[in-house]
Every structure is written in C-alpha cells, then in structure tokens.
Amino acid sequence: MLDTQGRTIRYLRLSVTDRCNYRCLYCMGEEGVPKLSHGDILSFEELEEIVRAAAACGVKKVRLTGGEPLVRRGLPQLCRRLRDVPGIEELDMTTNGSLLPQYARELKEAGVDRLNISLDTLSEDTFARLTRRGSLSEALAGLEAAEAAGFTNTKINAVLIGGINDRDIPALAGLAREKAYSVRFIELMPMGECACWPRERFLPAQAVLDALPGLEHAGTSGVTELYRMPGWAGTVGLIRPMSHHFCAACDRIRVTADGMLKPCLHSAAELPLRGLHGRELEEAICLGIRSKPQGHHMDAQHSSDSLRGMNEIGG
User: pTM to 2 decimals?
Assistant: First the structure.
C-alpha cells in the first residue's frame, strides 16, 4: 500500500513485550521502567489478527521486537502462527542474543527467517557498563547458537555512542571479516533515556568510515548504506537517522506491545488497534499508513517527538 508520500509500506515492526533482561544505558534507567500488566499486552491471538490485517494492507515483512522478545513466554509458538499468515513473505526478529542458546533452534524450526542481534561492543567491561546486567560471553554464545541453528545473513546492530564504544568500531566491523555478517552501525537518537545526553555522545556514522578507510561503498539495503572491505565475507552498514535523514526511503510502520500503531518512530501520533476486528482493523491500519508523516524533525538540537522509549516501541 502507498502512503501519501508515494512510499510503499510493506514492513511491520511488531513489539511483543515491553520487558527486557538488560538495562542498556540509552534505553532505560537502571531500575527499568514501569511494566505493562499481563492484561495490557496483546495476546498471541491479537498479534496474529493484527498481522493478518496488515498483510491485507500490503505488509510483506514482519519483524518481532521488544523490549527483548525472547522474554515473552512461548514466543516460538507465535512465530509458527505468524509464519502461516498468507502474504507474509519474511519473518525476522531483533534480539540481544542472550537467550538464543536456549531458543535459536526452535525459532529456526518455527519459521523465523533472519535475526538481528544487538551488540554494541566487544569489550567485556564496556558491555557490562552499557547493559548493566549482561555479559559479553552470553551475547557471543547467542551468535554462535544462531549460526549452529542454521541462521544465515545475520545482522549485528551496534549503536554508536561517543566516548563509550567508539574505540570498538574496528573490532565490531571485524566480525564481518570471516563470516557473512552485516555489521551495522546506528547513530544514537535523542529519545527516551538519552534525549538529554551531552551532544558528544551522538557520534555521526562518518566515524566508522574514518576508522576504516579501506571500506568501499556497495550500495544500499533499505535505509542502510552498505560497504565492503576487500576480502571480507560480510558487509559493514551505516544507518544515519541523525546526519542523513532517510525518511523518503522508510517503508515501515510499528505496533507497540499494548496495541498502538505508530506510523513513525519519532512522532507522538498513535492509533489504537486493540478491540478492532476484521475490516475495521484493516481500515485502521490503512489509516495509519496514510497518516505516515513525510519525515521526522529530529536533529542535533531537537529530540524525538515520540512519547515512548525504545523498549516500548521496538527497535
């Protein structure tokens, strides 16, 4: 389906929980966030119904997000249900990787096509500082479990944070040297917990090109600029929501774990979906697509207009 800007909207990011087993500095406070009650979270039946309605509106790809989606009990069961929805051609998941040793094989068998694994550093100390309660070893074990389960073309997402993990750029990129990972560096966005952080924390993705001058441009994939290092198996990607707005190429909508459709990550606008069924639900999703703004107004001086943090929206 086309929005009013002529963009084809085919991608739904579906949050299945607001909860997470980490407390990353840029996402939430040390004590976490007020948690939605069990009754406030969309049931598997509701999630499937929303995906079916979104597919009727032209959505072809679904990515499950959180919080951390794998803390949602029985998630592989939901994956099987969504994999069977007519019109859905791709089912992906974003995860911090810590629970993949337990779930990777079951996710693969349930029909998940690809994983995005968040990994902001290869330093044990920096990892502990950033996540507040995770360990680098469990994240790396998750990468290994994904590969052992048969996942390919895995994407590794690293948020760039000036003064914290900028020294890790060469090491993180190096994960693509021997394996066909796509290591993607994402500019930190001023929203939620980090909205008022010092400007020096918001490192432009140009820092990656400066640290790795041998990178050669290799096209784009969605909103990601792709680069290759000669002889490497994988790619390095740059996602620049701050320094290079890519709103004109955005093809996605989001649904929060409590059933609100967000046409744009950085807008305060939300449309309620819970309680709607059939044609009424389809019409609400189509309205959300038509309501997608031309772009966001976030830059070095202006924070995101979103009223929610990323754990509530999904990455």
Answer: 0.92
Q: What is the pLDDT of residue 241?
A: 86
- Local structure of residue 299 (DSSP, 8 states): B
For residue 282, the SS3 value is helix
Find, among 77, 103, 91, the residue nearest to 21 by Cα: 103
Tens of pLDDT, residues 218-231: 999 988 999 999 99
What does the chain come to in residues?
Answer: 315
pLDDT for 81-101, tens place per residue? Answer: 999 999 999 999 999 999 999
Per-residue pLDDT of 6-26, as tens digits, reads 889 999 999 999 999 999 998
Q: How far apart are CA 188 and CA 174, in angstroms?
A: 21
Buried-state track 270-300, b at ≥16 Cβ within 10 A, e below 16 = bbebeebeeeebbebbbebbebbbeebebee
DSSP 113-133: -EEEEE---S-HHHHHHHHSS
